[in-house]
Automatic annotation (TrEMBL):
Protein name: LysM domain-containing protein
Residue ranges occupied by any LysM domain in the UniProt entry: 109-156, 173-217
SMART domains in UniProt: LysM (SM00257)
Pfam families, A to Z: LysM
Top-level taxon of the source organism: Eukaryota
InterPro entries in alphabetical order: LysM (IPR018392), LysM_dom_sf (IPR036779)
Amino acid sequence: MISSSSSPANLCLCLLCLCCLAIESTAQQKFKCSEGTTCRSLVGYRPYNGTTISDIQKYFGVRNLRTLLGANNLPISTPRTYRIQPKQLVSVPIPCICFNGTGVSNRVPIYTVQPDDGLYYIATTMFSGLVEYPKIQEVNKIPDANLIDVGQKLWIPLPCSCEEVDGEEVVHYAHVVQGGSTVEEIADEFGTTNTNIYKLNGIASNAQLIEGKTIDIPLRG
């Protein structure tokens, strides 16, 4: 809560931070998607704390553990207690639905607000920057981003797409850009082309890659 005795300097600083966040939230390219289509997509998740493959399944509402294992090239015999280390990359399958020209995960995952949570923290830490907090606020019709309740259930609208690329079906992968990454390195890691990444994300050079922002990577189906 902001005290009524806050100094003008502090108020100016708060306004500056809010402006920066607003500018930052517009920098992320929408995942384009044709109205009314549905498909399966993937997101690249890096848990803040160590966890298990089973907990990630529950966290994201993945119906079948085998689907999650397959997305990460793990054998079907992998135990549910298989450990995932902090910040270890895990590919998570999500159902995608398209409306208003963009794609989001279809009513999953559902996150339960914990003590001291805020929307920004939930977006950047609990979901490793895959989604920006204004989008969570929008889809959950939250009037004030600073006012959420412990125990409140929030739909986390993860970015996705069902669009074909050059007339071919692909699996769209939401990837959070890491510091120092280049388009060439990302394309090589995921087995796609620089051109596809540039085109899908509306960028023209590595200078437009922003650390912590989510980009659309087309994977061969």
